[in-house]
Amino acid sequence: MIAATDTELDSGPRDRERERLCVATRTVRPVADLIRFVVGPDGQAVADLKQKLPGRGVWVTATHDALDDAIKRKALLRGFKRDVRLPADLLSSTERLLEKAMLDALAMAGKAGLVAAGFTKAEKALAHGKAVVLLHAAEASADGVRKLDAALRRSAKPVAVIGLLTSAQLDLAFGRPNVVHAALLAGPPSDTFLARFRRLERFRTGDAGAAAAPSQAGREMTADGNGYE
Fold it and tell me: Are 98 and 161 in contact (CB under 8 A)?
């Protein structure tokens, strides 16, 4: 384990340590619970979500509050031990990167043929026990949500229910218009989407369990792990 007195810097993207020191909280955490930041070619700090960018990295607990604290107290700047600039929008741009990573994973699930888009197909996927995720657009009608929730309650398998994405985001991810309801089928791309969704939710809420509350009824369950390749 890394002692809190050790340097915050890793030794580069090939560093295989599975725990790192958070410069904001000064605690040692698994790398899956952290975001790595590196200095880009322009001298500005940037989030390295895949932990593959060159150069030595500084780690921050993967929540909005921890990153905000690291920026305000200049802990992130001190962690680099060199001259570096922090973009004014580093907090919001990091959240956008997390959201983009989640939507990219959703698109990959679509390309892998793991999407049952539309009310009827989603309902059928639930009835046949094939769904692992049920997606409702944020604009979905209460009636449509209620009917699919009834089908969900009859499902014998755990199913994650996500209602935060807009119809426009679902349209873009699946390459088709007017997606309001959809189901994801079992497969690694769906697992990756769930993991990235969970990571984004934890960043926003600061609660590791915010998007991962499994139950026997299969409501609100997401995958564990960071999901990055």
Answer: no
The whole-angstrom distance between residue 51's C-alpha and the CA centroid of its chain comes to 14
At residue 129, what are phi and psi to the nearest 5 degrees? 70, 25
Query: What is the amino acid identity at position 66?
Result: A
DSSP letter at 31? G
8 Å CB contact between 32 and 14: no
Amino acid 8: pLDDT: 66
What is the separation, in whole angstroms, between the first and last Cα of the chain?
Answer: 24
Looking at residue 5, its amino acid is: T
pLDDT tens-digit series, residues 185-217: 999 999 999 999 999 999 999 864 444 333 223
* Whether the Cβ atoms of residue 138 and residue 181 lie closer than 8 Å to each other: no
**Cβ atoms of residues 60 and 54 within 8 Å:** no
Q: What is the DSSP letter of 44?
A: B
Q: Check if the beta carbon of residue 60 is closer than 8 Å to that of residue 76.
A: yes
pTM: 0.83
Distance CA 100, CA 102 (A): 5
- pLDDT value of position 93: 97
Instruction: Give the length of the chain.
Output: 229
The pLDDT-based confidence of 4 (bands split at 50, 70, 90) is very low
